[in-house]
Amino acid sequence: MTTVERKNYARKLECEEDGLYFSRYFFKQRTGGKMIVAPHHKVMQETLDRIIDGEIKRLIINVPPGYTKTELATINMMGRGLALNNRARFMHLSYSHNLALLNSSTTRNMIKSQAYQAMWPMSLRDDADSKAMWWTEHGGGVYASSAAGQVTGFRAGHMEDGWQGALIIDDPVKPDDAYSEVVRDGVNSRFNETIKSRLAVETTPMIVIMQRIHYHDLSGYLLRGGSGEMWHHLNLPVIIDNSQPYPEENTHGIPIQHGLPDGWLWPFKHNESHRVSLESHRRTFEAQYMQNPRRFNSEGALWNEGMISAAHALNIHRELARTVVAIDPQATNSDESDETGIAVASSYGGGDERQYSVDADYSGKYSPNGWATKAMEAYKTHDADAIVIETNQGGDMAEDTLKNAGFKGRIIRVHASKGKYARAEPISALYAQGRVAHRGGLYVMENQMMEYVPSTAKKSPDRLDALVWALTELSEPVVAGMMIPSRLRRR
Length: 491
Description:
The protein is α/β, with parallel strands linked by helices. Helix content is 37%, strand content 18%.
């Protein structure tokens, strides 16, 4: 064996054993540049290897755009899959027929390359060598089409044991069509009616890799039981927060533990300097980047995106009247507890023309002393005249907690004698009238506001509750459930 042959053999073994090495090697062969490898690439490749090893049969990977998903899970998955078994058959679908053809032809050109042939010699059949469909002399190959296109007449995999290929769906719906119910729901229906039947056997793996685009996109549809199957789920938002539980609504999802640390998924690509830009379009950020599409503007919601945008745009030029800190404390203190809501709000002017601002959100998971301390800091920072505290969960204990922490200012106790909708609706009306401004970092609170649909809410919205208590006090001041006479109100 010559030196060149020995090097090729060693490289061949490395490519077969290490999928990330395969991707790096052929990325450089194809582009002339080095592939920048990040921790999330390793997690994705390890997960794809579990498909090849037969451990996983149904896989969903959700990852932001531009994070090398197509390179790893489509182009190199098919190229390496054929290296491991030259009879492997793939069906590849995407939202665009041309994009599916591009991915298919990229893999085909890789296989035809001198570097690939030196390790895995195989020729393509003359009668089946197009971008849309190409076959090796051994019966392996790729069929590519759009998710809404022609998929009959071909099946992924073989009726044989071991690794035989897969059905790979890469971004089945174009982001621009996220809010087209006809397009989006059409792909979901087509999955069960046509696409799912394109497997040689039921154990042929299916991979759905996509950026989330809508609550009812294909990922959401499958994770909530649309196909009746259980799906392993690798969820990689642009900002990792390991404290977040796996969504209960994903009844048919099996979460894959990625082991990545809290913080930005790929700081080389996106980091804190990009936050403002990413968050500037809320729905895109929540869906395509955070992989958690929200149900904003739902029927029955008390707040919508237009109201929040108007709150951001409102400039108040009237004299400051009052500032309060409102607390919605949690009854328990454990890892499973909700957050304690802490909101700061102000009022300006008086009478029917009074305006308001929401100045800060200090909500979080705290011990009783922790939330008391945080509220006292907010009180001092914003020069508030009172702390409003909801006492349903603890009565005197909530007030005592503040006093024991050293608070000596005015405490206004409020009791939730009315339902949440009855308390929140008048505050929503203030927003509808364009009388409330938003300042500071209220992103999480605003999400909670827009997601709150009273008829379907399953739990207390902590940040929203604190906001409602603060603005209620400023618009209709109460002490221990009684209205304060106007002559006693501080102006």
